[in-house]
Fold these 3 entries.
Entry 1:
Amino acid sequence: MKIGLACHATLGGSGVIAAELGHALARNGHAVHFFCADAPPRLDAGAENVTLHRVESPVHALFPGGEYALALASKLAQVSASAGLDVLHVHYAM
């Protein structure tokens, strides 16, 4: 399967669980695509069957902190269409 995992790039549950889950899936032959602002600390982005898609939040006068949710949704849609992802796992904290 081709699986997309959206997570935060932190040592918290989102980044840790996503990295461990993704690596286990990749070891079983699944193509795993990670979506986050930066690589979570436990993610080996060079591992076989693992691809990291960095999500950059554009800064705008109305959104000085960036609009991460919109940037994430756009990246998920773009990669889902181009890579033919079968399923997306998005952590509840997203």
Note: Strands lie at 2-6, 31-36, 50-54, 87-90.
Entry 2:
Amino acid sequence: MHILVITSDYYADIAAQSQLGATQAIKDAGATHDVVTINGAFEIPAAIRFALDTNRYDGYVALGCVVRGETSHYDYVCSESARGINQLALEHKACIGYGILTVENQGQARDRADGTKGNKGADAVAACLQMIALKKQFS
């Protein structure tokens, strides 16, 4: 299996922790991976869509972090990144693990990326691998 990890590095330290957990989980599963880094979580669905056209990947892992701020920007980014990823999964039968943290503050994000409360990057890989297996089962 070959997985594409797409990481938004808007919060670089949190992204690095999530990505480390994800890439280790991929290695532990005996799979291979490529990593693409982009600026924001909003752009992740488009990046996955571009990669879908290559037919090089069995699955995708979306990693990022969106922290609530003082404006409604948080709501739009969270909603649209999730909607876009779900749309890709449904319309293109893409196996995608969703590891975009949507949190109230950076402390919550760190806890979910550094292992204190698990590593959502590793969790997203587990979801991706499970969807790949399920897709193969029904093919």
Note: Helices lie at 12-28, 44-52, 73-92, 106-113, 120-138.
Entry 3:
Amino acid sequence: MTENLTDLNILVVEDEFLIAQTIAGSMEAAQAAEVETAESLAQAHVILSEKWFDVAVLDIRLIDGDSWDLASTLASRGVSIVIYSGHIRAELEKKVPSAVFLPKPATPNQLVEAVVRARSMERSIEFAELTEA
């Protein structure tokens, strides 16, 4: 892998165990500082009440609902978002415009690159806000 995720805390919200493990493994191989996984919105909210994350990789459809509200909440807190789903359509991308959308399936390199893109988008938005002030 060419990208490095050193110092990033990453939350993976995915209800399919093997996919969650593949994502987490990809993040760990790219040297993420910490990777936590949640299989449901409820579990993600519990984890988020205890820890801060730099990036969240979210599936859209989970066992207890869609992750759009979670994505919006995280984005409003400054967490970079990657939506990793087989249910991506152009009109859905408007729901969280600051997110990077990655369709399933993807390679480990594509997952890591999506996280890097999400982080650079967040920094670009922050820089634009600073220069507008």
Note: Strands lie at 9-13, 34-38, 55-58, 61-62, 65-66, 80-85, 100-103.
